[in-house]
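Table S2 (text version). Query chain:
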Amino acid sequence: MTKTKILCSLGPKSEDPVTIKQLLDAGASAFRLSAAHYGLNRLIQLITLLNEIRSDSSKVFSIIVDLPGSKLRAKLPSNLESMELTEGETVLLAENELQTSKKQIFLSEPTVIRQLGKDDEVLLDDGKAILRVVRKQEKSVECVVERGATIKKNAGVNLPTIKLSIPSFTDRDKDIIEATANLSVDYYCLSFVRSPKDVQEARNFLDSLDLKSAILVKIETKEALDYFEQICSLGDGIIVARGDLAAETSLEKLPVLQKMLIMRASKFKIPVIVATQLLESMVQKDHPTRTEVTDTANAILDGADALLLTVETAIGERPVLVVETMKKIVESVEEHLDELGMWFDVRRKESSVDSSDAIAKSSYEIARETRAKLIIASTASGSTARRVSYFRPSCPILATTPRERTYYQLPIIWGVVPVLVPEVYSVDIMLHVAIEKAKALGYVKSSDTVVITLGTPCGVVGTTNMLKIHIVE
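Corresponding structure-token output:
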């Protein structure tokens, strides 16, 4: 297993049981379903399938549902699957189909067109095509094509020069959550978040349904950057969604943005996931470009907990090969993390915020000094495992938990191997169970050194207060 986790998006090329199991064997730690591309019935079918697979599998993985949010999409005339846009030509963005010889594009939220004015930019498909508004009309705007491309129906639309008035957490999002509430979804992704209020609204909605699913916040708008710390404090993880983020800001800012967002989010001890165009050439080819390999490596060195494959595994011709290739890249980079991971040295020199942080940091330091084979983190909520992961120890982190929800949320955390254990109320029994699990999984053998973090009273959230060096008998 790689320490940097590999997450796969499912789609037409990968949503059958055989391929899903092959992706697991190849190294996948989680599966993402983009609700924007599924009807409710099909979404429910796929979540049910994933639950069936993990109940029969020895491999643990997370189920992630990506909510559509207020993502704008391009709608084309009903007879078209795609449209060729040529630089310099005129295109209408219209609320409804008009009687005209000009090319027309509609938006999934038609009233947004009324917010557009002269000189506003319209980016299609992450900026592959760029339109500029030249004239505003009653129920349409006339645009000139500044960058031509072929766009497909339902291509994403970004309007970087205006602030949208539509809500980020939509009624459709709520319908999807309600419909999947009893299906053991581990994470819901919030799309196009613009303020902390959007995250809090989603959290309140989950609470109203008594749902313990975690929230991943996709960072893909300029407004989200303005409130980044507050958003991190409310979410359970973030996704650096580089396609929309680049369209909303600018391509040249993206490399530094990625590094800064990972660094700032990691301080909250939440997982940071990097997504978009990691190995996109493999949608059609059987090998990545050198640029993609370097990009993937840099995301790992920047401190990403996980890498999210999107179109590569959803519509790519060889989804399993993509994961196998990603795994090789990750393994190669992880051999040199201690030499090249300068951000991790910065983390290790920080002062501890509280006693739990101090225990986590000490577990890393003692594991390094004693050359421990394993760190065992006994955790109810998963917080202890995430804190230890923050310091990027060279040995694996075995996270033992009696809570099924925590067990299924931990697979996306860097370096963590989740293990489900019985609820116990004795430290001695807890230690015995953890060591026996580690031996059974092949992580330790007789005479190996293990560092163990746990808390008393047992099973109570937020009580990590013990650290033990243990020699396996």
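Notes on Table S2: The longest helix spans residues 40-56. The longest strand covers residues 129-136.
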